[in-house]
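ok so i was messing around last nite and threw this chain in just to see what happens. nothing serious, just curious
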Amino acid sequence: MQKSHIFHPRPVAYEDLISHNILIHIPRTAGTFFNNCLRANDLAVIDHIQRFIDSSESIQHTRIRHQLSNRSTWISGHVRYDTLTRIFPPEKDTRYFVLLRNPVNQLISQINWQAETLCGSYLSLARMPLYQFRILMHVCLEALNRPQNVPNVLNRYFGSFLNNQCRSLSLMNSGRLRTDDLNLFSARCHARLLELDGFSVESGINPFIKAVISEIQGNNHTQMIPPRSAQNRSHPVLDNDLVSSEEFRLEIFNLQLADYILYQNAIGILNGEQSPRRWQNFNELKHDCEELIVVQKSLEVVSNEKLVLKTRSRTKKLFFTAKVIRLIAKRLVALQKFSLFRQAFSWCKRLPASCRSLPLKAVSLTVLNRWNGRKC
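result:
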């Protein structure tokens, strides 16, 4: 019978040496729900730790450093494994955990979430780097207008949306996985999962959380598990008939190949397998993943038409405003009106964060920061 999760309890003899418990928070894998469960059971959590890590890979924020001095504090963030191990070395008995998810469902949820992001704060969009902002716009436009073309757009921006689970575990940095490297990469995935102190797939998230809480709070603690609304679910934008179709999911499989190998090894370890999974060729891997690709279809949900209309309207405004601001900026530079350019830049920065009549602040800062030679 398949286990639902792997969790290595803390050895009592070394209890005082444990430095930190860290969740490598992969986007759209129930990391927020995990953090909410810890908080509901009176455990301190610092989430989104990436906000406090500077360019030298150190944490200078005084309040956060004080919180980190508490050994029972959990740390969570969208930070890659190799970066975290440099900041919190495993030699100091730091424990690392991760939640994994079916790669197709994880990617679909991420696209839905990114589309929802466009309906969020303009200020958060303003802080987004220009390249990332442009990719977000293109992917969301395809998801809204030509959803069947989403795999082609994702393939064009391969390193931005795809194989996030492998990238978060520092198994991939750039480029694509070659089909003749499947078994070598599988061995790396297997070894990395064994390095971790605990992991779970989506089917075992609740037992995994209960095991973590029991280990820290004791078996006599009455556990509180928040309602499903605490799972930070995204509103569906992609049509369910499309994302449930075998053709679409097979296209996503080809793009998410690395994540599928990682997920297969996670299932293998949960089933008690001692060695990495191996395949003779790509077709054999594809056959092994058929159940994950086709059977685990999305729940029967209808795309949120209100959100789709709002996102489409927001996207049109963003593109229109970006085009206008870009033309003005180019014209000012061509005329060498650098003083006017600096005034325009300063004026845009003074716009209130609550300015929601038009996405002027977000797009103008995104574009003008680049023209002004600054990072967003």
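not much to say yet. The longest helix spans residues 305-334.
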